[in-house]
Every structure is written in structure tokens, then in C-alpha cells.
Amino acid sequence: MHDTQQPGIHHTHYRQPGGNVPTEATGATSVHAERVEGQMVIVQQSRVEHLTGARVSLEQSTANHVEARSAQVDRSAIRSLEAERAVTLRSAIALARVRELRASRARIGLLRADHAIIEQGRIGIALVRDLSGPALLRLPLATLATFIVGLLAGALLDRSITAKRR
User: Fold this and answer.
1) What pTM was estimated for this model as a whole?
2) Mean pLDDT of the chain
């Protein structure tokens, strides 16, 4: 998949599965880095505070914050993930904000997504439009919006009643 396994942050080449054309990528192997950025970023056995890229791949790594158009996460832990599309395998994510998610044997604390497919994983709270798989609490976005509007209306009504009493 990659042409080098040397420790550190370096430029490498990546071949997509089923593809013959190598793509230039930024690789981070066995490092602790504050920030790693690039068009295509491959992180292996590393700890990264902030990771940004159009395509991001994490394997046996940890990251505090990941921003990507497309993220692939394998046996890794992420505190906050923001992506258009994400695929996770045997990973843990505290907060995931994605448009489309496919997760297998993953644990996600809070998931906000348009579409999610969960296979043999656990989701604490899922705020999604379309969810396939288990979740402890499923809240469709329309239900959540209605709940928040109700809370705000109740708070405003309470303030107006309290102000009239004075």
C-alpha cells in the first residue's frame, strides 16, 4: 500500500485498492505530532493532535481532531471526527460529525450523521436521518429539532411570566 515504513513524517506514494496509479501522500509512521496536513494523509502507529486532509487514513493510531472529506479508520481512537464520508473498523470515536458513515465493530459516543450503517458496533447517542444498526438512543434530527424548539419556547414563556409578575 505504501512505499516506505520509516518512522517520522515523510512524503510517500499510495496505491488505492484496485488502482494502478500511485498517488502522492503525506505519511506519518511511529511519531507523536501536533499537526499533520496534506491532500492524502496516511498515519500509522502514531499519535496526532490535529489531522487534516482531503483523504485521511489512520491505522493503529490516536488523534484528537480529524478533519477530512474522506476518512478511513482502522484499529484507532479519535476524540473528534469531522468528515463527509468515513469508514471505521475496530475503532473508538468519542464524537463523529459525518455525512455518511459505515462502521464495523466500532464504538462511537455521539454520532451526528445523515446516513449511518453500523455492523456489530455500539453507538451511545445517534442523531441521524437514516441509521442501520444498534444505538442506545436514536434521535432523528427532526425530533431533536422539535425538542430543542420546545425547550426554547418553554424558557421564553417562563421569562415572560416571570417578567409580568415583577
Assistant:
1) 0.75
2) 86
